[in-house]
Amino acid sequence: MRGLVWRCGDLALDCSERTLVMGILNVTPDSFSDGGRYLDREAAIAHGIRMVDEGADIVDVGGESTRPGSDPVPAELEAERVVPVIEALASKVPVPISIDTRKASVAKVALAAGATIVNDVAAGADPDMFHVVREARAGLVLMHMLGDPKTMQLEPRYDDVVAEVKEFLRERLEAAELAGIEPERLCIDPGIGFGKTLEHNLALLHHLDELLELGRPVLVGPSRKRFIGTLLDLPENERLEGTAGAVAWCAARGAHVVRVHDVLPIRRVLGVVDAIARSNGSGAGAGSDLGASA
Ligand code: PMM
Asked: Residue 196 C-alpha to ligand 1 middle, in angstroms?
């Protein structure tokens, strides 16, 4: 989609030139794939800087795991984990920082610390969330989740998963706008793995075009998730190639942002996929490849 922008604070992220990469920084003891690795503040900050060096367009900082079956974390503890990391990163990296939280109170302190995007996996369920986002002029990710992390993988059911997720996201976009958030600040996400079976995840990825019809940037988070493990019969630390496959599919189908752990390899995958997707397909145009041998 030409000219699509996503506004976060004073910044306008261009979502049409290439697929943007959101690098994952979980400051948690229990996230499903990197839990415990970045609980140490200095290690978290160093990893955030490394991801930006590797080409991350956004760093997504989270202090509460939303893995299936996980318990909620008190707001104070969540804020204590993320705020110092966001403060340090905001002064050290040139890209926007997002706060991955369901709690308006955590979003508020994270935005005050320098984040400019709220990544809300509960899509504004906290009654104060839209107000906090509007006041800070932040960007907002509205993600679909069925139920909550504690129960979402207990036999999730839909009559038509694609239609239901699309309708949910349409309704949340409308609610956010009614609450005074400018449409250009909103981004949507089907919530891969959040109350979905393998078949549900595959259907949502297959029909990404349905979500693109809502006219806002689409973010997808397939990184190292269980559906990849199921398809390939591989543990979390061996899901990079599967993640790359999912990312390539999403980018080719028009997703605007991918949320991943492994920034460097995924940037390389996208360098090729985006070039093919955005070529004019005629073989003509400004060539830069005269010396290439293959
Ligand atoms: N997945 C996780 C956490 N936050 N946010 C968005 N917008 N989309 C996702 O798919 C998503 C998310 C769970 O993965 P993690 O534990 O590796 O962060």
From this structure: 13
- Atom number, ligand 1, closest to the C-alpha of residue 193: 10
Phi-psi region at 36: left, alpha or beta (left = phi > 0; alpha = psi -120 to 50):
left
Query: Are the C-beta atoms of 19 and 258 separated by less than 8 Å?
Result: yes
C-alpha 150/C-alpha 112 separation (Å) is 29
Where in the chain are the domains? Answer: 18-276
> pLDDT digit string (tens) for 61-109?
999 998 888 888 999 999 999 999 999 999 999 999 999 999 999 999 9
The reply to whether the predicted model has a pTM over 0.90 is yes
Give the architecture (CATH level 2) of 18-276.
Alpha-Beta Barrel (3.20)
Tokens linked to 258: 């991918």
Catalytic residue among 225, 226, 239, 267: 225
